[in-house]
Amino acid sequence: MPEDFNRFDSVLPRVVDTLRYPKPSSVNCIYVIRDLYGRVRLAVSDTLENDANATQWLEGEAEMLRERLGVRVPATDAILFLDAELLQELNQEGREILPNVYFVDRLVTGAGWWSVDSANSETSETPTYTLYSVKGGVGRSTTAAVLAWHLARQGQNVLVVDLDLESPGVSSAMLDPSMQPDFGVVDWFAEDLVGQGDHVVERMVARPDWHRDLRGDVAIVPAHGFEPKEYLAKLGRVYLDTDVRWTRRLDGMLKRLREIEKPDIVLLESRSGLHDIAAATVTDFNAHVLLFGTNSETSWQDYGILFDHWNRLGLAADIRERLSIVSSLTPDIDTDDYLRRFRGRAWALFQDHLYDDLEPSKGPYGFAFEMLEEGAPHDPLPIYWARGFAAGASLRRIEGSTVEQAYSHFLDRFDQLQRMSRGTGS
Prior knowledge:
Strand order of the largest sheet: 8-7-9-6-10-11-12
Shape: globular
Radius of gyration: 24 Å
Order of helices and strands: HEEHEHEEHEHEHHHEHHEHEHHEHEH
C-alpha cells in the first residue's frame, strides 16, 4: 500500500487530531466540509477574510491537514469564507466534533442516519411502531398485516403506511388491485412539491376485505395508487429537500393522515437496509422500532454497523430505549436452542454498542440488562415459520389458525409492549 494513501476512514480522526489545539479568539467557529468526493475544506465566516492573524492560522491548519490527508485536501481553495446565510445552513447540517468545530458530510441521499429530528417526535401522541430490518425477506409486510388484524380484533383503529417505496409490499399483499385508492405515498410527495398535497391525502386510504369482521378499523396507505403510471419519475422526487427537509414533509403527511383517520395506533412498514427513508422511520418519529433479524452472520454484522454508527455519533441514548429485536422466521425444529443462540448474539450486540458499561440496572444510573432479562431490548420477540405465511402468500385473507401457529408469542409480547408504553404494566 502506498505511503501517501489516505483512506476515507482516516479523515475524521486526523481532522480531530489536527484541529484539537486552541485557535485564535477571532475564529469563533469552524466548519469542516467533506464533499461528495471525500475531499476536505475548512469553512469560516467571511468576516475573517481580512483578518491577517486568523487567515495565517487557517492557512497553517489547512497545510497540516494537507500533510496528513494528502490528496483529500485541495491544493487551492482549501479555506472557504462564507456569508452568514450559508454558515447557518452548515450549522443545521453539522455535528460538533470539537468545541466550536463542526463536521459537515455532503451525501448524495442526505444524512438520515446522522441525527435524531426531535421536532418530528413532538408532533403526535399516537403510538407509532416502525417495522424495520437491515435485510429484506424477513416477514415485515406479513407482520404488519397480522399486527393490524390483531389490534383491530381488540377494537383498535389501525393506520398502516407502506413506506417501502422501492419495493412496495404490504399494501399490494393486503389489498385486491380493484380496491387500491386513487393515490399513494409517492403521489403525495410529487404533488406536495407544488403545494397540492392536500388534494390527494384524503384519497390515499383503502381497507382490506377482512376489516369488516373486526371490532376496530384497518386503514392502509399504499406506496402508489390504483394506476401507478409514472411511478419511477415520482419516486425520484420523494427524497428532495425543498426549503423544508423531506423528513419534515413526511411528518406533515403522517400528521394529516392522523387527523383524517384518527387511529389509535400507527404502523410504519419501513424500507429495509440503510437508506434514508428507513432512517427517518427509525430515528425521527419517536416510534418504537421492531428490528427484524435472523440468527445469521450477515444480520448481526449489518446491525453492528448501524449500532456502532449511532454509538460513535452519540445518538444511542436517543434511540436505544425504543428498540425491540424480533426473531423472524424462527424454525420449528430445535426452536429453544435457536432462540437461546439468537438471544445470546442479540445481547452481545446491544452490550457492545448500546448498553451502558454498568451493572445491569433499569434505574436512573444506567441502561444495561442481564442476558436472560425478560422484556429487555435484546429479548427476542419470536415469529415462527409457518407454511401459510410462506414467501409470496396473499394477505387478503387472514386465517386465525395460521396466526396462532406463527405469531402467538410475538403478539403476547407486543401487547406487553403496548401496556408498558401506556404505563399500565404487564
